[in-house]
């Protein structure tokens, strides 16, 4: 002991070394505890094998016993530590790397891990963690589909709000000359509530690089969580892009047979489109168009468009103008305001703000994404935002999923639940007494 100022990093390294010693003692103690249990179950110890694993408290090499019975090999220490096979990272480290990757580039994740935990990883280590998260996401989706439906009380909303839109991110894989990829994003909720800040009630959210998968999943979530009756009003809102047209949302709503379906062309995008159309022209025309939309007067909007069209003097400008003109007139009925339908505007047009958590990480940092990487990161961002990311790595669903996998070796055994105490008898059949000859 002396008067030298404490170096916290050195002291932290000392604590890590002490933690490693404590950890190795725990392993030895567990080995002594589990050995008689394994023998009582008929297992034989075959050898001792070393393994190096990076834990949140440092990298440790330890030795553990391997046991075998009837061709089945078990490593109790690995099971005790919850280690994933064929990886050098603990599940806690995988979780931490994935969580940090939702906020920063992979290289930065490595720097933060070294700064805070004095744990050294590379950007490739972070990529491995994201790939593992992608595998878990697929397994959890399989579990959701294969597990028996659990009876739960469904929400009975008076009004159910559904919105959908695409998020474009830069792709590392050029496809047909296009270096961008669309993520399909859907949200469903039952309205707004005021706490310390305005939030969406009963919100469910889906994102996928595959449009059909995203749409199918949001349909499943609505079916499983909401009781849509003949008294329910379904309100949908979108920018009208490909896959998010009024027709697409009508097909979605019809599946639930609601009392009424009301679709809105997102007000923000309508305003942006009007500005885009009329900015080259006298401001009076733009004002006239906005007035027509506000009063739901299609003739006024058409007058403004016709007047602007008459001012165009080149064919190159005319064709794109006419295309936008047809778009706004064709979808004009969906520019009505929620108040015209007896609805509050709160809770409608929320998609842009819901995109933000995705675009902040994936779009605004000049990042390029593979299809799998974009799909995984976008989904882990949603899970993290909902407070469910840890469940992906440590949830009870993992054990249930392993049981399903084991029972899948016997097709139908998991789903055909038969009362073992009930006796089933085949009906008696009167067989013919004489031999029946079949003529060819």
TrEMBL record:
It holds the Pfam family UPF0236. Belongs to the UPF0236 family. NCBIfam families: transpos_ISLre2 (NF033529). This is DDE transposase. It comes from Streptococcus suis.
């Amino acid at each position: 002991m002396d008067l030298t100022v404490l170096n916290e990093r050195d002291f932290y390294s000392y604590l890590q070394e002490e933690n490693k010693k404590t950890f190795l003692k725990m392993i030895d103690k567990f080995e002594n505890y589990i050995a008689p249990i394994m023998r009582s179950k008929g297992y034989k110890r075959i050898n001792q094998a070393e393994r190096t694993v990076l834990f949140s408290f440092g990298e440790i090499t330890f030795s553990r016993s391997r046991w075998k019975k009837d061709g089945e090999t078990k490593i109790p220490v690995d099971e005790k530590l919850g280690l994933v096979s064929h990886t050098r990272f603990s599940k806690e480290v995988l979780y931490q790397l994935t969580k940090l990757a939702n906020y920063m580039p992979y290289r930065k994740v490595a720097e933060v891990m070294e700064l805070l935990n004095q744990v050294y990883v590379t950007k490739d280590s972070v990529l491995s963690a994201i790939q593992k998260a992608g595998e878990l996401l697929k397994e959890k989706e399989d579990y959701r589909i294969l597990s028996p439906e659990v009876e739960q009380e469904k929400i009975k909303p008076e009004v159910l709000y559904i919105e959908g839109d695409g998020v474009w991110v830069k792709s590392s894989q050029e496809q047909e000359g296009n270096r961008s990829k669309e993520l399909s994003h859907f949200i469903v909720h039952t309205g707004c509530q005021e706490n310390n800040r305005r939030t969406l009630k009963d919100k469910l959210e889906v994102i996928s690089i595959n449009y059909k998968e995203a749409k199918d999943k949001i349909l499943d979530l609505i079916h499983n969580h909401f009781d849509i009756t003949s008294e329910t009003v379904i309100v949908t809102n979108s920018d009208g892009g490909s896959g998010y047209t009024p027709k697409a949302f009508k097909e979605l709503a019809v599946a639930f047979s609601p009392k009424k379906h009301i679709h809105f062309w997102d007000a923000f995008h309508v305003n942006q489109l009007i500005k885009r159309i009329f900015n080259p022209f006298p401001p009076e025309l733009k004002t006239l168009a906005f007035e027509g939309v506000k009063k739901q007067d299609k003739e006024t909007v058409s007058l403004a468009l016709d007047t602007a069209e008459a001012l165009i003097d080149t064919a190159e400008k005319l064709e794109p103008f006419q295309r936008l003109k047809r778009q706004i007139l064709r979808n004009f009925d969906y520019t009505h305001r929620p108040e015209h339908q007896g609805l509050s505007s709160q809770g409608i047009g929320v998609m842009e703000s819901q995109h933000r958590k995705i675009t902040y990480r994936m779009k605004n940092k000049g990042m390029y994404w593979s299809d799998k990487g974009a799909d995984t990161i976008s989904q882990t961002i949603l899970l993290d935002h909902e407070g469910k990311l840890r469940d992906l790595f440590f949830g009870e669903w993992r054990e249930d999923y392993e049981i399903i996998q084991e029972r899948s070796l016997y097709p139908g055994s998991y789903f055909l639940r038969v009362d073992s105490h009930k006796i089933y008898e085949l009906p008696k059949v009167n067989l013919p007494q004489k031999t029946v000859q079949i003529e060819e």
